[in-house]
């Protein structure tokens, strides 16, 4: 099994699938927690207030149900007489984490048999409309265990202040370009963006909180914004949009290098070369399992030639080589260790170029009838030299489950969450059968302008391997992603019935489960972001069970796909160190769960008027959920590791 190999990752640990909390230990025990540990020890001790080695062994096997050997267990069992201090050393070791280590993963199956930790619009640092693009974003997600990153590439733009050799994000962000040449009379970013979008999307943007905040800030100081949309739209197309919507002709000479940004928005750019260098430097820093680079290409042919040259230079020796003949099956992660796979539009044999669809725009954001029609953009053509770099990940536009490319071994379909859910409802079995053998990528709706995420279990449940998320957000989607991939190297083998190894079985090994969690005490709970004092902090713990429920016959579609969620919470307490008084939450009968696609998520929130701010969280896949007395190691609202822990007793069973 490929585990993170860089010790620095442990100190950097941010949620996403890098180091697991099962690797963490506790340095000190607070007075709120200590009495519960003493009671646990004394309840199993003899008259001399100590344990024998056999009693310690029974505790590990019967109470904690730890079946695996570890150096911490060996040290615990090495004493003829086990004292409370010996017990305390064991309970504060990684062996007592609520997350058990992920089982060793067989990496010899084809790529399509794995769930792969994946990022959407990796370059962005914030929202989808106006945030910065940086190379650091790539470094961060790769150090967090991500194995599929996305790069949106656009033609470079010439200007007096622009060069093609910038080596820093600051240089890229400060370039003077047609897109970023602002003036005092221009509208705010959001007002300009509304003019730039079609009428349908502009009206939707108008309803968002981002738009409202922008309007509130500028309404008093910029009354001229009320001018006609037509006049300002023409001004915008001259000043901002032309370089993104009109592609260079084949005869144009390329002097500027390609750039990376979120097209048709006001996000800032970064150079494609610098992105490639950042990927090279961190691609295999924490695992040597293969990295997929998903390219969205909006460039002219000559700029695509430059892209090919840059990638071949930056990733020399890392790019996967094409096989001598067409493969009958995809290679395994084991055979692709240390290699970069490029996902790019497939050019059919005999063709020199292929047209590129605009992912997300047509299916998510199409204007309604009667809406203003935006300027039509010429489709990009992918040249053969670029397309042939997509060896095992050849992007094909989805048209029908019966299209010729749907059985091409190396194809990968990309669907927005909206389209995916439509197919899940109407063609669920076809979707599921396809994903047993071939790759599929799913990405968040283009209307998630705040960079919120879809809930991945619904998509994993239909076999999608590459469920791309906005890693700059710490929300339910990223928490569940952490539950799936923490400590795995970014590749998780699907359940057997999801891989085609047993074609007669669609859904197998489903069981009914019962879960009980007793909350004993907590220490060092981090405060919500922005809070400075624990005096006004009133935490409670919310427990949610997320169970995939894809049976292809469900009439329920709440926007999160086929997923069931069960919730319970504790009483409200006060402060960062809390006696939780043995409060129990139970989930007595949850039917037909698949352990590999069921997650237990804990969130600590501040009980206050209005929205209860997130303070801390943890998420565990059910088949890795420890039994007995366990510590929940808490991540903060940004997903960073903290010293916060909650002592609980966990009891769960399936039948």
Characteristic key phrases:
single chain, 655 residues, alpha/beta, Recoverin, domain 1, TIM Barrel, 4 domains, eleven-stranded mixed beta sheet, eight-stranded antiparallel beta sheet, 19 helices, 23 strands, transducer, phosphatidylinositol-4,5-bisphosphate phospholipase C activity, Phosphoinositide phospholipase C
Would you write up a description of this structure?
- The chain has 655 residues and is α/β, with parallel strands linked by helices.
- 25% of the residues lie in helices and 23% in strands.
- The chain folds into four domains: 25-96, Orthogonal Bundle (Recoverin, domain 1); 111-167 and 250-365 and 379-498, Alpha-Beta Barrel (TIM Barrel); 173-245, no CATH class; 511-654, Immunoglobulin-like (Sandwich), CATH 2.60.40.150.
- The longest helix has 17 residues, at 229-245.
- Strand 20 (598-606) and strand 21 (614-621) form a beta hairpin.
- Residues 1-12, 159-187, 207-251, 365-375, 503-507 and 552-561 have low confidence and may be disordered.
- Helix 6 (136-143) packs parallel to helix 12, helix 8 (189-196) packs antiparallel against helix 9 and helix 16 packs across helix 17 (428-437).
- It contains 19 helices and 23 strands.
- Residues 204-218, 229-238 have a biased composition (Basic and acidic residues).
- Residues 158-191, 204-238 are annotated as: Disordered.
- Residues 162-171 have a biased composition (Low complexity).
